[in-house]
Structure formats: structure tokens, C-alpha cells
Amino acid sequence: MSELGDRLVAQLIRDYYSNADIASIAPDRISEREFGYGVIGNKIANRHMAFKTPAELKNFLVSNAPAFVDYSAAYYRFPDARPMEKKIWLGSELRFDLDASDAKYDCKIHAKGWLCDERLEAVKRDTLLLIEDFLIGDFGLSEKEIAINFSGNRGYHIHVTKDAVLQLSQEAREDLCNYIKPTSIPAKVLFPGLAKPMKRMPQVFPGPKPDEPGWRGKFALAFIEKLKSAESLMGLGIDEKLAKRLNKEKELVEMGIRQGNWSLVRMPPTEQYWQKVIDSILFERSVFIDANVTKDPSHLMRLPNTIHGGSGFIAKKIPSIADLEKFDPMKDAIAWRKGEAKIVANTPYALRIGDETYGPFSNAEAIVPIYAATYLYLKGFADIKSIY
To answer: Among 90, 64, 60, 72, which Cα is nearest to 30's?
Structure first.
């Protein structure tokens, strides 16, 4: 970090909020929300703040140019009161946080921690899975009851404001987390026949059907999808010979699964073997949410359409599922598009941002757009020497 870099970022943030439409930033029921803000290197330096009107919020943002702005999932009667119990809780949104830093999204090409297109696409796929498969498919929410925004850095935030969720207890929210990201499902729960020792697969081996609700249906559907190739089946831990046979006979195997008879999936009839396959599918089909965010009714989260001080990007609102499918954070969340800067950068890989690719750099000077300079600066990969 440098004095010039910090001053540049602060001025850019101030300019952003000066020109922003506060109606696109201020949350609903603003006077009942707790707010917090942070500085570069400290995401929440202060909290227990409140604003009565959007105008008050804008005045604060312009005057202070905070690197981070957060607001509560909860509605309170006295949002700036301390300690927490004096706020008087009125209810809380249901929120989900997905972050590409999770181990599930580790890239096989780049080093751990480097944010690349592969990781961003993976966390976006899981965000769509959470919305379409769990929130809409399992919980019966409608798209209009779900708000989506880019986190501003490495993932996505989902907000559910339906009245029915506002009074959910912390325990109920934790139960939702455990359903969306189960640690395991015992093999004999899905396949009761495994409870008894078997020497070979029987002619009738009852198991889950794809039209069943919950994880039984999800598991059956996922297994049917894997029948499309031997490689996909081998990815579940099935040996090559059996995987090739299942793929060759996939129509017949699928018919059996759809009838709830898994006898044609002639895997070894041991609980350990089937458990390995179940756990592999759970890893792929569960969503790696931050459970601490979801289960805590008082959690503070990035205020949508504000600046993220760790990237210089906007925590941009995404209007619909269709817009999320097309969303490219490295282009669509850029906050500042005018101006250039001279930097000295050291990056292990090339960075794709905007419509260009920059680097890799080895302690090299370069002139890049302001948005690339601030991104690399805030990530610790570059120092800003001058601006144009």
C-alpha cells in the first residue's frame, strides 16, 4: 500500500458515491437496519450505525468514502443501540454467501488464491444451482422473492425477503444450511438393502428415484447424468470396467433407476463402495455456502451497489436469473472506466479484466486503465506510481 494509492482509491470511491443514484443503493426499511463500514485492510472498522433516510446514507458515503459498506440482515426497532439485545429484533432476511475462495473451487491451472475465470464460473454455476434447485425447486420460492448481487470480489450474495423467512430462528437457518450442504448421507439411508450383508447384487435392489423430493431425487438424477460417459462415472470412484459397462447399457440402467430398482448398477454390494459414490455426488451437487452468514440473523453483509475495497469493483445488483447467467464480474462490475495509471506490478499469471489481458508482470512497469490499476493495487499485486 502507498499514500498515493490510498488517496487515489479514496477519491475514486468518493466520486462514485457523489454520482450514484442513492435509490439504487439504499435498502428497504433503511431506518430499521444496522450499518457498518470499513477501511482498506479492515472490512468492518465500525458498526452499530443507523440512517433514517437514503439522503443521510448518501451524505455519509460521500463525506467518508468508506472502502466497505455493510448492512444487517436484521430489522431492528433501535438499530444503532448497544449491546445487541437493546436493538430489539424485528426479523431478518435469509441470506447466502458463496465465495470462490472455497476449496471446492480450487483451480487446477492456477495457484491457490489466484482469482481466475475458471473459479468465477464455478461459483456462478453453484449460485444458479442454489437458486434454481434449492430455493425455487425445493423451498418453493419464486424468482421475485430472491435478490441477487455480485459480492464485489469473489462470489455472489443471495437475499430472500419473503415474509415467511423473517422470523426463522438461528436453529432453523442452520437446518437449511445442513440441507443445502450436507456433510454426508449414510448409504443405507438411500439404499436400505445395504443394511444386510450381501455377497452379490440381488435382482431387486430398491433405491431412490429421480422424481422423489429432496436428496433422494437429486442423487438419482445426478447418477443418471453421469451415465452419459464412462469418465464421469469414474469420477465418482467407480472402476473403469464397470463404468464402461454402465455407459454402454445406460438406457437400460436409467430405466431401472427411474423405476427405483438399482439392481443393474452392479457395484460391489458393500456400504463402503456405495458411500464413496454418494459422497462424490454430494460434493458436486451441494452448494458451498458460508453457513455463518446464513444462520446468523444479525450478520452484516456488503450493501449492494457499493464499492468493495478489496477489488475496486461494485457489489452489483443482478436483476434476474437470466442476467446472472450472462454476468461477467471482470467486465460488468467495473466501477471506474476513465483514466490510466502507471504501475509497478508483480503477478504470477495474466489478468483478464475488462476487454483486455494484462501481465503476467515480474516487477515491471506498465500503463493500464484505472480499473486494472486499482484492482491490482487493492489485491497487493501492484503499486501505483502516477495517474493520468
So the answer is: 72
